[in-house]
Write a structure and sequence with these properties.
Layout: H1 4-12, H2 20-47, H3 49-55, H4 61-76, H5 78-87, H6 91-115, H7 119-145, H8 152-162
Helix pairs in contact: 1-2, 1-5, 1-8, 2-4, 2-8, 4-7, 6-7
Keywords: Membrane, Transmembrane, Transmembrane helix
Transmembrane segments: 25-47, 67-85, 97-114, 126-143
Protein name: Polysaccharide biosynthesis protein C-terminal domain-containing protein
Length: 169
Amino acid sequence: SLGLPDTVTRYYFDYPEESKGFRDLLGSILIFFLLFGFLVVTTLTFFGKPIFENLFSNVTFSPYIKIGLWTSFFISINAILLNIYRAKEQAVKYISFRIVNFLLTTGIIIYFVVIAKEGALGKIKGSFYASLLFFIIFLVLILKRSNIILSKPKLFNALMFGLPLVPHA
């Protein structure tokens, strides 16, 4: 995530609510976040097999690690919107999304593990499908709040704030 979701919280207070400056910042973060994440996950999907087989010799790269990579990509966007709700002190929205996410993820996992009898793969598939669904929902909600623009100065400032947070996370 390169610390970018935390940057949203930090810079939220520097701009008037829903201002062009904040919308440009959010759009810049979103574009970079999606492009960078997609590039990393796609690269690892196609070329990461030797790396992951050395790290996790008892886990099959395909489908387990591949699905895990894409699940992490899809779920990572959640933090951006949740940090906006946190900054705006919208606890009901924040908690509602967390609870619905938990219940839906658990329900899908139970389906794949218990009903479809897919075992460990069912757990991973359930997490994947839930993260994909929430990715779409969160993406739509973030797009409504942002301008689709890549502002290099705003992105640079966001990365300068967020990157030092990476070791902490």
